[in-house]
Amino acid sequence: MGERRDAASDEGNEDVSTTEYQVTGMTCGHCEMSVREEVGQIAGVDAVEVSAQTGKLVVTASGPISDADVLSAVDEAGYSAVRA
């Protein structure tokens, strides 16, 4: 059964989208973790890459996600962001 599930998830990867944002206010690894946790809760998000050093946030999703959802999640983590 596990093999069938894997095959089905591979088919969904055709619609993968990657969106980049610029986050302000992060200074450390804890900041990165907070943003990663909040953004990671958005439905459809597959991966979150975030760097306090550069302020870059890259969100990979299995389909379209709303900028408003990402910006709201970053705000919930205590930071602000704009789409890059």
Radius of gyration: 14 Å
Contiguous helical run count: 3
H-E order: HEHEEHE
The second-level CATH architecture is 2-Layer Sandwich
Instruction: Assign the CATH topology.
Output: Alpha-Beta Plaits
Major sheet details: 4 strands, antiparallel
* Low-pLDDT stretches: 1-12
Termini, distance in Å? 41 Å
- From the spread of the alpha carbons, the general shape counts as globular
CATH class: Alpha Beta
Oligomer: single chain
The helix content, as a percent range, equals 25-40%
Number of domains: 1
Mean pLDDT: 88
Based on helices, strands and strand pairing, what is the structural class? alpha+beta
Strand fraction equals: 25-35%
How many β-strand runs? Answer: 4
Largest sheet: spatial strand order: 2-3-1-4
